[in-house]
Amino acid sequence: MGGQVSSVEGVHVVVVGGGFGGIAAAQQLKSQGLSFTLIDMRDAFHHNVASLRASVQPGFAQRTFIPYAETFGDSFVQGRVERVDTSTQTVVLQGGREIQYSHLILCTGTDGPFPGKFNTVASYQTAVQAYEDFVKQIQAANSVLVVGGGSTGVEMAAEIKTEYPEKKVVLIHSRIGLCDSELLPSVRQQAKEVLLEKGVELLLGHKVSDLSELPLNVTRRNTVVTTDKGQSLTTDLIICCTGLKVNSAAYTSGFSSSMADNGALKVNPHLQVQGFSNVFAVGDCADIQEPKMAYHAGLHAAVAVNNIIKSVSGKTLTSYQTGSVTMLLAMGRDDGVGQFNGVRLPRFLVTLGKSRDLLLWKSWKEMRQTQP
Ligand SMILES: Cc1cc2nc3c(=O)[nH]c(=O)nc-3n(C[C@H](O)[C@H](O)[C@H](O)COP(=O)(O)OP(=O)(O)OC[C@H]3O[C@@H](n4cnc5c(N)ncnc54)[C@H](O)[C@@H]3O)c2cc1C
Q1: What topology is assigned to 134-243 in CATH?
Q2: pTM, rounded to two decimals
Q3: What is the 225 CA–ligand 1 centroid distance (Å)?
Q4: CB within 6 Å of ligand 1 — which residues?
Q5: Please, which residues have CB within 8 angstroms of residue 363's CB and are 6 or more apart in sequence?
Q6: Please, which residues bridge with residue 85 across strands?
Q7: Which residues form the FAD/NAD(P)-binding domain (predicted)?
Q8: From ligand 1's centre to the CA of 257, what distance in Å?
Q9: What is the pLDDT of residues 2-52, one digit of tens each?
């Protein structure tokens, strides 16, 4: 990124959303000495990559939330952004507080079902407790049905079966192929093999009927579930791992003409939002043709911050380039599958690199705090 720039007069960057993209952007702005405000509706960063482990291991959840204020001090503001007024360059929070920006980085990410995501506005303690309570629900169930065989569902099923091998775990998926379609077929096949080795039962090509009417995340003995193909099964606990949606509420009013159909923000190669040279989109809410990943959100953040610095000093902006897919799947704490730059990795390497700690160390280091 080049040398540190001292605080530039008239420059105040507002970062909306403190997920993987937001904390990376804020940390880089801080180390560059630029004036910034990071806004998130919660008081702690959620390392949701480790949320599935926090769902099965008692005591783990406290490692998956990292308080913002200790890292960013007064540069962090807790609040829900309700809208952005692009004419006055103001971000408006619930309750009416307004914060002005010279440059804006939008990184509001995606929402999805618990436990993969935790979307509730809650204190650090309440958030941690929600996962501890959920561990008890899993412990109380003799059988668990995981709905959705994308990467989250696959990891969830593997986590449960690894921690509680005696439980019956069924993974139901509407398609035949598991995991993200961007992964190499051999990696997807390997994920399936690991699940079968662990004893997870697969029900592929079936969709749960009336999912919205079933009890989720709470143990209810012998709940009957039917599929669109007329098959029924009983289970004690149903966990939904489908349905991520772009979190566009913060910017819909100000940027409706720059939004793709799914709510993501259309960006140019410099990650500037279409029609706005001082507004950048980073992470899951940026409309970029690549898998939605924390890893990518961090790369986007570096480009956005770099380009803010370059634009202030009149230099040519950097472009973001998508590369071959790198994705690692933790199949419980003792196994893993994945690929690096389009090349399949041995299982032991993924286990060492990702599955044991789920890259928690990286976020605690980035936040300059000590992991409990
Ligand atoms: C279970 C699971 C496992 C995953 N594993 C991996 C993995 O191993 N590797 C990987 O690279 N990726 C993984 N991902 C994907 C990864 O989590 C996302 O790509 C990443 O979180 C995107 O980061 P982000 O900063 O764009 O958004 P998010 O992490 O979604 O953060 C958005 C933030 O914005 C805040 N926010 C939203 N709206 C508002 C508002 N109106 N006002 C204030 N604040 C707001 C939210 O509170 C949140 O903190 C996984 C995802 C899931 C669900």
Answers
A1: FAD/NAD(P)-binding domain (3.50.50)
A2: 0.96
A3: 30
A4: 16-22, 39-42, 48-49, 51-52, 80-81, 107-110, 112, 116-117, 152, 247, 249-250, 283-285, 292-295, 297, 328
A5: 20, 23, 45, 47, 66
A6: 90
A7: 12-298
A8: 24
A9: 445 556 788 999 999 999 999 999 999 999 999 999 999 999 999 999 999
Q: Which of 37, 191, 190 is nearest to 101 (CA)?
A: 37
Residues 204, 170, 216, 108: is their CA dihedral positive or negative?
negative
- d(CA 177, ligand 1 centre) in Å: 24
**Position in ligand 1 atom list of the atom nearest CA 52:** 1
Q: Sign of the C-alpha dihedral, residues 127, 128, 134, 140? A: negative
Q: What does the pLDDT look like over 142-187, one tens digit per residue? A: 999 999 999 999 999 999 999 999 999 999 999 999 999 999 999 9
The encoded tokens of residue 329 equal 């799947």
| CA distances from residue 229 to 216, 226, 319 in whole angstroms, order as listed | 21, 8, 47
